[in-house]
Amino acid sequence: MQWHDRAIILGVKRHGETSVIAEVMTRERGRHLGMVRSGRSRAMQPVLQPGNEVEVTWRARLDEHLGEFRIEPLTLRAARLMETATAVYGVQAMGALLRLLPERDPHPHLFEALEVILDNLHNPADAGELFVRFELAVLNDLGFGLDLTECAATGSRSDLAYVSPKSGRAVSRTAGAPWADKMLLLPPFLNSEENRAADIDGLSAAFRLTAFFLHRHVYEPRGVEAAAAREGFVQAALKALKAAAPQDELSA
């Protein structure tokens, strides 16, 4: 059996003396593993770095076998991704999110989102917002999508301010006021009616929102912890955004 696809390197593990097992996110076939012969060579090591985009050819006698990759470089962005903390942690954190999905389960929209985020990890505001949306997309693909489009109580699409921790649905400011202390905040940039960019407070609330539902629906039932890289990314993104914010905004 054989197929070709575009892929993004997620990680590698040593295999024998000279080979590696490469883990990639393909566009059409989801997260996939394969052996790369001579993957530890000087020529291949720079190619097999997380975040790089490659063309893979996979071969195996049977579909259920591990198989072997032949890899050709397309976009080598790994060196640039090592320049900022948001990028270093972001690549690792997104790889950990993709490992929550079944192997070989196609998610082309996540592949495309991963491409976009990798090209914007140097900008803390864009990186943080895109990462949150990536987490929401992964939650949705796992069957735990949030409904942030209208109020769960009234059906209104305006003045959405909260998210119910029970239902994962948005709640308007008026309807949620009696239970505000028990609600999760809905950041304005996730409200389609607001059309606002993420700021420090909104991004912090968004990180808490996705963390809550990932823990509740994914990590806790599976008996696992969130990847340490996520917290590293969160802190790096907020720190960089704070440093870039105008002083009058910080003192407001």
Describe this structure in words.
There is one protein chain. The protein contains eight helices and eight strands; from the N terminus they run βββββααααββαβααα. With about 250 residues, the chain is α+β, with helices and mostly antiparallel strands. It has two domains: about 1-75, OB fold (Dihydrolipoamide Acetyltransferase, E2P), CATH 2.40.50; about 85-150 and about 185-250, no CATH class. The strands form two sheets. It has a five-stranded antiparallel β-sheet with strand order 3-2-1-4-5. The mean pLDDT is about 95. Belongs to the RecO family.
Secondary-structure blueprint of this entry?
Layout (H helix, E strand, L loop, with lengths): L1 E14 L3 E8 L3 E7 L16 E7 L8 E8 L2 H4 L3 H14 L9 H11 L5 H18 L18 E4 L6 E3 H4 L7 E2 L14 H23 L5 H17 L2 H4 L2
Antiparallel strand pairs: 1-2, 1-4, 2-3, 4-5, 6-7, 6-8
Helix pairs in contact: 2-4, 2-7, 3-4, 4-6, 4-7, 6-7
